[in-house]
Amino acid sequence: MIRLVESFFVKSAVEPSDYPASAYPEFAFAGKSNVGKSTLINLLTNHHQLAKTSSHPGKTRLLNFFLTRYKDEEQNQGFIQLTDLPGYGFAEVSQSEQEKWRKMINKYLEQRTQLRAMILLVDIRHSADKKDIQMLEMLRLRKIRHCVVATKSDKIPKTRIHKTVQILAKELGLGDVPVFPVSSLNNTGFEALLGWVHKLSLEP
Fold first, then answer.
1. Domain boundary assignment for the chain
2. Has this prediction a pTM greater than 0.90?
3. Are residues 131 and 32 in contact, defined by beta-carbon separation less than 8 angstroms?
4. What is the band of 54 on the pLDDT scale with cuts at 50, 70, 90?
5. Of 48, 72, 154, 188, which has fewest CB within 10 angstroms of its CB?
6. What is the CB neighbour count within 10 angstroms for residue 147?
C-alpha cells in the first residue's frame, strides 16, 4: 500500500511538443464527461483542489499533468505522474470540438512513452456504454495496460456490488482486467487501486 503524500499541478498541454518532460511512470485517467476523473485524482492525492472539478460536463478540455510523491509502508518513496484526459461523449460540445479532443487523446496514447497504464472510469449504476467499449478496444489494440474504476459504489446496496461488477466486466469484455469499485462518499476502494498503480510503477 502506498500513500500519495505530496502532489502538484505541472502543466496543461495539447500537442506532444508541450508535454512535460518526465522520467516517472505515468497513469492516465479517462472516461465519459462528468464520470468523476478529476474528483478521483483529488481523492487519491488527498488534495481536494488539485484537479479542477465542475458539475458541468466538459470542464476538462486539455491534457492536465500532475506529479505526485508517494511513500510505501516501509517509508520508501518515489514519484508517479498522473494525467487527466478530457471526457468523451459530451453531447453539448460541438462535433468539431469533440474531434479535436479525440485527436488530442489519440496523439497522447500514441506518443507518450512514459504512459504505464490507463485508468478508465465508469458509473457502476449503468450498463456498459459503447464509448467506453470503444476506448477499451483502442487500449487493447495499442497494448496499453489498463484497469476499470467503477465509481459511485455507494449508490447500490453492498450486497449487489460484487455481482454488478461481474456483469459490468462481462459487458465491457474485460477478461482478466481488474475492476475496482470505489466510493468517494464512503472513501472506499482506493487502497486496491493504489496498490495496482504502485505495482505497475515498479516494473522496469
1. 2-201
2. yes
3. yes
4. low
5. 48
6. 19
